[in-house]
Design goal:
374 residues; alpha+beta; Immunoglobulin-like; five-stranded antiparallel sheet; 11 strands
């Protein structure tokens, strides 16, 4: 009886604690106290890059007084918050930039962003900025600014970023991680509503399809095709092994073409966002796959004196394709910041493949015709 009462008491207090803790944890920006004692009526915890936006909107003058906070930031990095009056995204945005200069003083200025190759040079914005300043403390950079919104406008597209400060104190390019690519949204200064858009990750679903197709085609079907040859070629009276191998490889390469086409489409749409190594390996794989298909059509007869050389070439290219495929798949994992379960699952498959491949060199384990067993 006492155990039952104790359990009920524990559950009651646990629920009560959860009830009080969750709202407090969700109000990160509301509970923040600024060192300069500024008070902002509206704020929002932005979805990515440990960032927060605080503001006061003055409707009669259509001005906004903002404080953009970027936490967990190293002193050798710059931060920026920008308004884009004409479109979503980085290009054409009007940025407020802050960093620590050579004297360790926080410097803030305005910078119009005209292209993806911007160096965030100082310049006037398309709207009036009445004041701007910055402060850095406890690995947190804050940009304070007051600006005038365009007439009859209360909501705007906005973006925020961080990046490295070079040794000469020029500003380097920001990373292309998932957090950096989704750091954009829409803010309504009048209603206080902030909506995070998919931004640079608007093609995230398509990227996942691209990655999934290529992992299955280049990373699973092609290795299985190799195992089919290793384990069945020498133990079948007919050419079933050959057709099974061809079907597996053909399915893999056909699906790989679809995956490559999606990758090409993503590359065209992602202006200024390129993964050169991933792209280059993909092109090499596509070409090698085509050469393998062509070589299969042009293979010499068994009795031909070039058959042995062709076999060495065919095997060499095949193993190279597998090696490059695995490399590119893991590059894709890191680009998408894939969940560990997917990476671990694929690692498990690779271990399975490697073990079977090594064991296939043992004639006892392969289904091999041996006269002694007849």
């Amino acid at each position: 009886m006492e155990d039952t009462i104790s359990l009920k008491t524990f559950v009651f207090f646990a629920c009560a604690l959860f009830h009080f803790l969750v709202p407090s944890l969700a109000q990160t920006c509301n509970s923040y106290v600024f060192l300069n004692q500024n008070i902002y009526r509206s704020c929002n915890d932005l979805e990515s890059l440990n960032s927060f936006l605080h503001w006061n909107y003055n409707q009669p003058t259509n001005t906004v007084d903002i404080a953009y906070r970027h936490t967990k930031i190293a002193p050798q990095r710059w931060v920026a918050w920008a308004v884009n009056p004409s479109r979503k995204g980085m290009v054409c945005s009007q940025a407020l930039v802050a960093y620590q200069n050579a004297d360790g003083i926080s410097s803030a200025y305005t910078s119009p962003v005209t292209s993806y190759n911007t160096r965030l040079e100082m310049g006037d914005l398309s709207f009036q900025v009445e004041k701007i300043s910055a402060e850095f403390a406890n690995n947190e950079m804050i940009i304070y600014a007051k600006f005038v919104l365009p007439k009859n406008v209360t909501w705007v597209n906005h973006v925020w970023q961080d990046g490295p400060v070079n040794e000469d104190y020029s500003l380097g390019r920001h990373a292309l991680d998932a957090d950096n690519l989704r750091s954009m949204g829409v803010v309504d200064f009048l209603s206080g509503q902030v909506v995070t858009t998919k931004g640079g990750s608007s093609n995230l679903s398509l990227k996942k399809v691209h990655g999934g197709i290529n992992m299955i085609s280049w990373g699973i079907l092609l290795p299985i095709g190799i195992l089919i040859v290793r384990y069945t070629k020498e133990c079948t009276e007919n050419r079933i092994w050959f057709y099974a191998h061809m079907i597996c490889q053909s399915l893999g390469y056909t699906a790989g073409i679809v995956g490559a086409a999606i990758g090409f489409y993503l590359g065209v749409k992602s202006h200024g966002i390129q993964y050169d190594a991933h792209k280059s390996i993909g092109i090499v794989l596509f070409v090698l796959g085509f050469i393998q298909v062509l070589a299969g059509k042009l293979r010499p007869d068994v009795e031909h004196n070039l058959r042995k050389k062709w076999k060495i070439y065919h095997l060499g290219i095949g193993y190279l394709v597998i090696l490059l495929s695995v490399t590119n798949i893991f590059k894709g994992f890191f680009i998408l910041k894939a969940m560990k379960i997917w990476m671990l699952t694929y690692v498990g498959f690779l271990i399975f493949f490697f073990v079977l491949f090594v064991f296939s060199f043992n004639p006892i384990l392969r289904c091999k015709k041996v006269e002694a067993s007849a």
